[in-house]
Amino acid sequence: MRQPRVFVTRLVPEAGLQLLRERCVVDVWPGELPPPRAELLAGTREADGLLALLTDPIDAALLDACPHLRVVSNMAVGYDNIDVAAATARGVLVGNTPDVLDETTADAAFALLLAAARRIPEALAYVQADRWQTWGPLLLLGRDVHHATLGIVGLGRIGQALAARARGFAMRIVYADPTRKPAVEARLGIEHMSFTELLHASDFISLHAPLTDATRGLFGATAFAQMQPTAILVNTARGPLVQTDALVAALRDGVIGGAALDVTDPEPLRADHPLLALPNCLVVPHIASASQQTRARMAVIAVRNILAGLRGASLPAGLNPAAQGTGRTATPSDYTLDESSQ
Ligand code: DGY
After folding, report:
1. pTM for this one?
2. Is residue 226 part of a domain?
3. Most buried pick, 107, 131, 171, 196, via CB within 10 A?
4. 134 and 90 in one domain?
């Protein structure tokens, strides 16, 4: 009997890798960029487990080309890069890393909101360009955050963590979500609204919805036209929730006041992209969960998903429990895994 093989598609925090190396034969893609498709296939072809990132498309063709694969664990809470239905159909377990990144991502969303409202990147550029001559009564005026209205689109765990922060700034908080959450409304003192009402009411709108067929392109010209001309859009969810060309036009023509984006479409954004020429648009490179502590926790959960899947147990953070014991996970494995692995 052999040890199980696991392919890891990028160097991830050592806390997770060490756990994996103690029990499995581990191949880590060494590149700074994601493995190209051919390398992803080559690395996964003999693997029993795959630790993937949101930059790795995991589709039916890949699952078919990798017949030993029993578990795919995404080191992210979002999993729109994985065809979960295709995995379920083949009895491949899929996991993600929820919960541990909620507070860190909410910190980043609120940091972006504050930075855009108070024009911090523009102010830094102004000082760096040696343009600071005196205190100016009209210099770099921004928008008040305190007592303003924050609209949260998608009141999951991260949206709720953002609301908790906004309460400290005495903001009025409204949300739109297909599922109304009365207990959360009462706990956080927030109001439910329709999407259209939220667009009209909000000074700041922060996106916390997953990318699905229903949310793709949610923010386009029609939505922007219903927002306040001073409103600021914050996106730490997924770039394709926003139609990029429509956002460029809305920011350029003053239809909305500004945007602060951790995620974009396309991603990455090249330096000559029109969004980056707009002074009212702040872009950072998909770093909302990027604290040392959180990324280490994400790596450990991702690895625990892999180890559980290799043992045939339910994943600590599983997305398709129905796949367990079906398809290829119904057949005995030809490896042994240290029983102490949890
Ligand atoms: C996620 O987890 O989905 C984020 O986009 C990266 O942390």
Report:
1. 0.96
2. yes
3. 171
4. no
